[in-house]
Amino acid sequence: MKDHFQPVVEFLSQHGPDLLADLKDVNAELGRVVTDIKHAVESSDLEAMERSAMEGEALTKKKQEEDKWDHVCYRESSVLCKLVLGICIYLKGDCTTSMRYLDTVLILGFPASPSFKTLISEVDEVCKKQQQQQQDLIPNTKLSKSTDTFTTTVPIIEFQEGELSASDFKSKFYNKETPVIIRGLCSSWDAITKWSDTSYFINNSGWRSVPTELGRHRDGDWKEQLMTINEFMSTKMTEGSAIGIGYIAQHDLLSHLQFLKRDVSVPELALAVADEDDIISNCWLGTRNTVTELHRDSYENFFVQTCGSKYVRLYAPNQAKYLYVSSGTSHTAQGNCSSVTCEQEDTSAHPLHAQAAFTDCVLHPGDALYIPSDWFHYLRALTPSISVNFWF
Questions:
Q1: What is the per-residue pLDDT across 259-293, written as a single tens digit (0 to 9) for each?
Q2: Diameter over CA atoms, the chain
Q3: Are 283 and 254 in contact (CB under 8 A)?
Q4: Sequence-distant (≥ 6) Cβ neighbours of residue 139 within 8 angstroms
Q5: Which tens digits make up the pLDDT trace of 220-256?
Q6: Pairing assessment for the beta strands 158-160 and 180-183 based on DSSP bridges
Q7: Phi and psi dihedrals of 363, rounded to 5?
Q8: How far apart are CA 76 and CA 15, in angstroms?
Q9: Could you please report the per-residue DSSP string of 170-184?
């Protein structure tokens, strides 16, 4: 049992003193709960750990529902309580519920220490074996094929795979901060075929939980919700059963679901200008008409379309004066987002936008698009879509 609780011991050692000091001033009741958890861990009292963690979970959930996680101590307390509950529940034999708690700990940003990775792998493997024993595997099921036809306006410069050397990419595009498409650059990825089958995700990770966005900001029905891979793939991505708009957006799914890592690789053109250790990857899985609104990033970006098709529109940095860039709100904290609603432009609200020049394209499976830092980009899925991007 002690080995299973090693992540908790490490958390309390690294964060406990500062967390308790903060809670003394911010929330004494929650501070008492954290102290009780600490004492229960020290005495290996499983029942006391679970009881205190459940109390702390209720307190942090209440604060979150009140939209009052106004101090980092609430997030840290929630991580601690979920971590303890995940382990306690696993030791009692419920690996599925345990996995949901542990996935939430990952999503909340708990550092993935070796002991935590070992714990996650163990619980994940037990869940997989249970599914196999219950013969709960589903047959091959393809992504929904619903689609839009689309004609681009001002095409982006493009090459076919093999036509652009690393040195030419660096000198003619990277150094000059100019976007470029390489068609078929990643067509050899296993992800191109494997990820188009939703059963691949469900059979290998259906019990895992991920952060999803339902609806869209522009439609006024946007919300966040934790869903299992099974729920998301079955109700949002599978042909014949996809309902409504759903998006797993800007999530490090390759770290979250480790088996996916073997299906992709960092494009060699990106490695020509960046060290692999400095590259950050994110996955984007969503239904037709999922939208990433117009914004810019401080990172260089290699964006790879893995499944389905996606429309992309780009504006150069010198067009910012026409894009009504936000100074930052709860949803645009970095002040890097435009208030223009692309493809539904309101000329009365944004009259200068009519003067903005852009280039655009449609990406298909295997295509890669280099987006230089500070270039504004807008994306909309024309079909159910999966993409991977590499920031550096």
A1: 999 999 999 999 999 999 999 999 999 999 999 99
A2: 68
A3: yes
A4: 199
A5: 999 999 999 999 999 999 877 778 999 999 999 999 9
A6: parallel
A7: -100, 140
A8: 8
A9: IIIIITTT--EEEET
